[in-house]
Amino acid sequence: MDNESLQSRLDEVEKKLVLLLKGQAAIQTVHDGAILRANARTTALTSIVRELCGRVGLPGEEFAHHLEVRTSFYHDQLLQAIRAQNPNIAGRVDNRNLDEVSTVKQFPPLFADDGEEPED
Predict the structure, then answer these.
(1) How far apart are CA 71 and CA 62, in angstroms?
(2) Fewest CB within a 10 Å sphere: which of 9, 83, 96, 106?
(3) 58 CB burial (10 A radius; 0-12, 13-18, 19+)
(4) CB distance 101 to 76 below 8 Å
């Protein structure tokens, strides 16, 4: 191949690379927007539930504890589902330390059914 042919092929590859990078940037923008929206929804729901708990007399610290336990529980459940499908992906996205891994098999109820205090 002569230099002109090589340069022509290099130019084509560079154009394709630019298109791929633009596409990747567009996908990342959509992804970032979805993450932002999900975080906003989570924050809104958390504030609503915190307000409802306050109205029925559940202390903010207790609500925060339950939220943390359940977040850890569901995070672990989702990672286990991913791990069942593709352990490599689960390994890449699971950045928890060992002490952060949920050991809860079932989280305690927020409100006890019989008027007793919820157990931890």
Answers:
(1) 14
(2) 106
(3) middle
(4) yes
Tokens 């307000």 map to which residue?
Answer: 51
The size of the chain, in residues, is: 120
So what's the pLDDT on residue 114? 53
The verdict on pTM exceeding 0.70 is: no
Q: pLDDT tens across 24-76, in order?
A: 999 989 888 999 999 999 999 999 999 999 999 999 899 999 998 898 888 88
Cβ neighbours for 89, distance < 8 A, ≥ 6 positions apart: 82
Q: Where are the domains of the chain?
A: 1-57, 59-120
